[in-house]
Every structure is written in structure tokens, then in C-alpha cells.
Amino acid sequence: MLSQPKRLEIKRLLTILHAIAKRKQEDRRIMLIFRKFVVRKNERGLLFKDGDFVDFLEPGTYRYFDPFLKIQVERYDLSVPKFNHRLTDFFIKEYAEAVARYFTIIELGSQQVALLSKNGRLTDILPPSSRTFYWKGIVDVTAEFIDISENFAVDSDKVAQLIHAKTDVLPKQVRESICSQEVPEHKVGLLYVDGQCLKTLSPGLHAYWQFNRHINIVIWDNRLQNIEVAGQEILSKDKVSLRINLAASYLVKDVLQAISVLPDPAAHLYKELQFGLRAAVGTRTLDELLENKNVINELVFTHIHDKMAELGIEVKNVGIKDIILPGEMKTILSKVVEAEKVAQANLIKRREETAATRSLVNTAKVMENNPTALRLKELEVLEKVTEKIGNISVYGGLEGLLKELVKIKN
Questions:
Q1: In the 8-state DSSP scheme, what is residue 119?
Q2: pLDDT confidence of residue 122
Q3: Which of 73, 81, 268, 395 could serve as a FRET partner for 159 with CA atoms 20 to 30 Å apart?
Q4: What's the pTM?
Q5: Torsion of Cα atoms, 305 then 310 then 312 then 315, to 10°
């Protein structure tokens, strides 16, 4: 059995434990009645009771008598300054002073764009007719307002900054907000706004705000262009079917003038070349065409040059590449050429024979009246004979040799 002192000690211990348990129970009851909320230094809070907004909370510890859990606190991290809430219009109307103290509000008109910077770093593009709240505090939010009612071109000093932005968010905003196009050297750009061509753009980087309008930039090459009209089946004046390939070079001198009247300038030039080629070939025979192909070039060039110049297109030159004849016509033409060449050869041969005969007659007349010339001719013949004989034995002198030679020839 325990001694009296021991029992007293245990009794006191039990009393103490009971008191502690009772105190904890009371603290728990108090905790259920009073609630504590902590708003940290990098935060701001919104206090609600029964779903109604009560006040803005700055950093600190807040205790409220709330036995029925009717109080809520929404906390917002100031390092993420953008504030989206269903009650923004209510805050502006009923708590204007508090809103001005806690928020930076950026509100844009229907013809305004804003470049948003956070701590001096460009991070966003705000569209027209928008209103955005940003918490004041950790992040310094500033905005540059741009009027796009008349001049909707992006300033040249901002083009590179926006188009080549290195942030993760801005490139997406740029794609949605800006139409940009780089016009290469030796080319020209056409600026279309809502389907209307407004002006030409010189080489370089161009950018335009797309808000409230649709913008498109089309590139045209203003260098020398080539066009080919191939495989054109055309009848000549003498009803010979020819297949002709034509090439031309041209410059679009005035793009605005060309597109104002032509939906496709290159296609129009192609058709005009076809018409000019048919007109040139159809009024000439095959022989005329084969004899001088440059005639076709001149006629086609004359046909289209002035017409295209009126449309802002300068035709530099026109040239026939090939004239292809049908198979049977090639055979006939080859025979004609062969016969012509044979006739020419015979004519030349007869001319040569006639000239040789005339020369012999003239020589005979000279030798008939001139013994010395006859003797020279005999020596010439002797020289030719001796060229083919190795050894010659002469008896009776040179005169005897010549006499014997004459006998041999007779």
C-alpha cells in the first residue's frame, strides 16, 4: 500500500493534469470563437464577411470574433502585381480612395495601346478598350500610351525592341498585336489595310498595330523578271503548223499602277505575248519566218511594249527561243534544202568548167602567135613529167627529147 504522503502527491498531480486539460479545452473553445489571419509583408489581403467585401488588409496579424466562420481573407502576392477580381468595378465605385492607394490602374481608350513595363523592363502590350489593375508595392508598373487612331505604324525606335524581344510572354503578344514584315533589298512592299492598298514600303523592317484593323503586307520583286511562253501551236500564213517558244524580260516599274488595273500582272503579260506572237506568225509564210526570226521579235515587242507601259510594266526585250516544225514538214524541208545545195554545187561546177575552158582557149591563142610561150609550156609539161620519173637518159639534146615526148603524147 502507498503511504499517506505518496497518495497526497499523486492526488496533487492528478489535480494539476485535470487543470491543464481544462485550460486546453477552454483555449480550444476560445480558438473556435476567435480566428487569426496573417498577411505577410509581401502580401495584401481582402476581408470578406458573409461574402460581402469589408476592407483591404495591409501586412499584419488580424484576429476576429467569428464563432460561425463567416469571415474570409483573400491574400495576394505583390510579386505578381496583376490583379484580376470580379469586384473591380465595385471597388472603383465604392472604394475609390483605397483603390488609388493600393493599385495602379491602366485604362485605355478604343484607339490607344499601352506598352507595359515592370521595374523598367518591357513585359506586355495592352490592347485598346482595356482596364487593368496592378498592385502597388514590390513591382513598379509603368505604361507608355500610344495613339493609333491615325498613325498606326510602330515607331522605328520600338520596332526592334518589340519584334526581337527576349521575354517569354512578349513574343506571343507581339504576334497577336503587330503585323511585321521585312522587305528585302531590291524588292518593294505593298501595305494593305482592310483590303485597301495604301502605299509602297521601301526595303527594311516595317511593323504596324493590328488593333481595330486588318493589315497585310505583300512583297513584290522590282528586279528584272523573265517570262516564257512555251509550246504555242500557231498556223503560218501558208497553213504550216508551228510550235514556237518565246521568252521575254520585264520590270514592274509602278507596282501601284499595275495592281490597280490588273489582278495578276504576270498573267496579263503572258496573254499579251501570246496575242502578239499569233499576230506576227499568222501574217507570214514559213520561208519568211525561217529566213528572219528577228522579224517576229520586233513585231511582238512593238505589239506589247506600249500597252504594258501604260500599266506600269516595262518590257525590256522579246526573243524567239525555238521554232519547231512537224515531223513530215522537217522531212520535206530537208529535201528542199538538199536539192538547193545540189543545184548550187552543180552551178558552181559548171562555172568552174567554163572558166577553165576559157583559160585554155586564151592560152592556146597566146602560144599560137608566140613560139617562146609554146616552148615555156613544153618545159612546164616536162617538169611535171620528171617529177614522177627517177632517171632520164637524153639522146640528141633537149630538142630531141621534146620531139620524142611529143611523139609519145601523140
A1: T
A2: 86
A3: 81
A4: 0.63
A5: 0
